[in-house]
Amino acid sequence: MDDWEKYFAEHPAPAHHAVACEEMKAFCQKHVNEKRNIALVTSGGTTVPLERNTVRFVDNFSAGTRGAASTEYFLNHGYAVIFLHRDESIRPFFRHLNSRVLDALQEGPGGLLQLSPAHSAQIRPIWQNYQMVRAEGRLLWLTFTSLSDYLWLLRSATQCLQQHAPKALLYLAAAVSDFYIPQDKIPEHKIQSSSGPHTVTLQIVPKMLSPLVSIWGPELFVVSFKLETDEKKLIEKATGALQKYKHDLVIGNLLHTRREEVTFVTEKSSSLLRLMEHQKAEKIEIEKLIVEEVCNRHRKYIKY
Ligand code: 9Z3
After folding, report:
1. Residue with CA nearest ligand 1 atom 21
2. Of 130, 216, 238, 268, which is most buried with the most CB atoms under 10 A?
3. What is the pLDDT of residue 66?
């Protein structure tokens, strides 16, 4: 048994997994019938529970901004999107409202609350887009919290999309833990501080890109992200991932500059994509440019 098979054998499927699979199947079928491309966008960070009845867990920094923004741009390009995201992470469309909704409201006739004219003008195109996407049933929301929930859903989504290759792509922007605690080492109940200092040994998560590319979705257009904090390692690591897993594209980014620049790495070349000063001033998001480029490359992939 390979390491990844052992991982799935040791970790039960998340609750309602069968329902999620049915939803994915119906969603894919609908959009294949309607001749649409489909993107699976993964987004947000995974948790690694320290207890079975989980009070504490290991987490990471990702809020899901890239995945949520990219989903909107894929939808703008006509794709249907499966948005596989961490529960409570940033969501497409809603991200434009969350922090300012109370500031945007004012009292109207009869004491009813309404959006101020300025906010209304800002929100209208987003609301219109959202309503259109909803009416067309082009966005499927699926959530995960823990690493194992994520991996179960990722495998099922990939297998489902493989049926629709080459018109389906994977855009793996979620920040996935490289470490986990084996099931038999996780205590049932809350770890007690009265027992003194606690030592945890984290095991390495099997590299799921390997079965993903070679077994679950061999004909899909697969885009993974590589995150580093040390600039000197980025290209080398991104190229290494590509050579090892043989997928289509790695988008490298550095933690502190990820909102301004990324590097597209393929087997043949690497190219920097950086927001220009005027784009920053116009508040253009780098995800708009990333998704444009990914869609162009996917279009060529479909042709050949
Ligand atoms: C990324 O590199 C994403 O771009 C970010 C987005 C997580 C940096 P935010 O959510 O950040 O917008 O704040 N995602 C992939 C990270 C990852 O776990 N990659 C694995 C790796 O680097 C391989 S698939 O080994």
Report:
1. 226
2. 238
3. 98
